[in-house]
Amino acid sequence: MKKEEKKDIFEKITSLAKRRGFIYPGSEIYGGLAGTWDYGPLGTELKRNIKNEFWKNMTQEHENIVGLDAAIIMNPKVWEASGHLDSFSDPLVECKKCHHRFRADQLEKNPPAGGCPDCGGEITEPKQFNLMVETYLGSIEGEKLKTYLRGEITQGVHVNFKNVLDSTRVKIPFGVVQVGKAFRNEITPGGLTFRSREFEQMELQFYAKPDKKESMKWMEYWKEERMKWYLSLGMTKKNLRFKEHEQLAHYAQAAFDIEYNAEGDWKEMEGIHHRGDWDVRRHQEFSKQDLTYFDEESKERFLPYIIETSGGVDRATLFFLMDAYTEEILNPKSEILNKPQNSNKENNEMEKRIVLKLHPKLAPYKAAVFPLLANKLELVKLARTIYEELRKEYTVAWDDRGNVGKRYRAQDEAGTPYCITVDFESLETEDVTVRDRDTMKQERVKIKELKNYIYEKYQKN
Ligand code: GAP
User: Fold this and answer.
1) How far, in whole angstroms, is CA 36 from its chain's centroid?
2) pTM of the model
3) In the predicted model, is pLDDT for residue 207 greater than 70?
């Protein structure tokens, strides 16, 4: 695929995300802050739905998995023990002329002609650049404690290994899930939220017996489970693949990524790592606490092996948006003609529709309710009753501006699966028109059946 086309999808998503309130540049009115993003009303709902689905899948649909919510700021010894202060770094090169810095691995992939990609100047040898974000606690100058904003959410789980064992009934094999913010001083943030300096992770730390064969079996199990999860929420199968790591992180014994195909450019979305007993062993060593597990069956004490699934919530949000993004050409009867190769309107009567075909479970709004005309009180009244009733169960949008066609287009771009219109007939027959986002087909549904109708569609999908 050509480079312009690759850029295109990021540009389209950036524009839609801003226009409809999914994602805004962070601190925009002050000129922004590189590598930070703010989620708007629709983006917040989408991201929350992704996190809720992750949480539900892990804790409700799997046995022996419990949740945790650890502090972002931890004792700095945690990061010594975890190896992040020594090894959590990217090799950087600097231009001797303009002093711009670049990741050495990226320059290796796309070597610029001459030297610096910005000015052609001479490039230095690579130097290691630590990614941990420093912060200081305390209010008295000179007595402040230097610590870090967590570079991964992982360590909050491992330092609580003993607490979880002592306060719950879990037995190995078991897992702990967590969702939360992580921070990295990324050298080259970019690709919308793809590489941010503040981002969210959703992780499982799964503790298994320290046995190579048994732990690899779990690794395979979790690889498949995570792939199934993305597919169950509607991601296109051909856009997902596993990629084995060639270079392993300081803690890893084996590692795979789930990658997403962003129009020809495969990008990491989630990592599945075999961490050996690295974390628990290091925390035992540095804290001088006994973190061994006592196995009732074998009467043995051991440090468990850890299988981790580590997904980026922002990357998942971005790739769910990309995967759902569809452009269609409609004829004057609003029938879908084809995919948009000829989107420059050759024929003035053709219309381009942008629609986010998000899975209903992820869609920010499950339905939208419209009165056909905003100035007909009886229509507005009935539509408001339906809206209030549905809102008890679902996130529902209300729209009475412009004509119904415009409202459909707005809801298509928001990814709302069902639009419900109350018209004059509704007053007589107690039914409404429900329009399906993807097929644009309309059908009449009894008002009292609406809740069930949406639920049925929602569950079946
Ligand atoms: N605990 C393991 C760990 O943090 P990682 O591969 O460094 O592993 C896991 O990160 C996931 O976190 C990545 O697959 C990605 O989805 C997300 N992630 C990492 N760095 C990110 C960044 N700068 N911006 C957005 N997401 C990021």
Assistant:
1) 15
2) 0.92
3) yes
Residue nearest to atom 22 of ligand 1 (CA): 195
Q: What pLDDT, on a 0 to 100 scale, did the predictor assign at position 338?
A: 66
- Please list, in sequence order, all residues whose beta carbon lies within 8 angstroms of the beta carbon of residue 260, skipping any fewer than 6 positions away: 235, 239, 240, 266, 267, 269, 315, 319, 322, 323
Q: Which of 84, 129, 152, 202 to mutate to test the pocket of ligand 1 (most atoms within 8 A of CB)?
A: 152
Q: Which helix (H) or strand (E) holds 284?
A: helix 278-287
Is the pLDDT confidence value at 1 over 50? no
Report, as an integer, the average pLDDT of 324-346: 73
Determine which of 230-234, 297-301, 345-349 has the lowest per-residue pLDDT on average: 345-349
pLDDT of 117 strictly over 50: yes
Closest-CA residue, ligand 1 atom 15, reads 312
Ligand 1 centroid – CA 58 distance (Å): 19
| Residue 460 pLDDT class (50, 70, 90 cuts) | low
For residues 78-88, average pLDDT: 91
CA distance 221 to 226: 9
Angle between helices 3-20 and 404-414 (to 10 degrees): 120
Is 204 in contact with 274 (CB distance < 8 Å)? no
Q: How far is the CA of 340 from the centre of ligand 1 (A)?
A: 34
* 195 pocket-lining for ligand 1 (C-beta < 6 Å): yes
How long, in residues, is the chain? 461
Contacts of 87 (CB under 8 A, 6+ apart): 249, 250
Cα 88 from chain centroid? 23
End-to-end Cα distance, the chain: 31
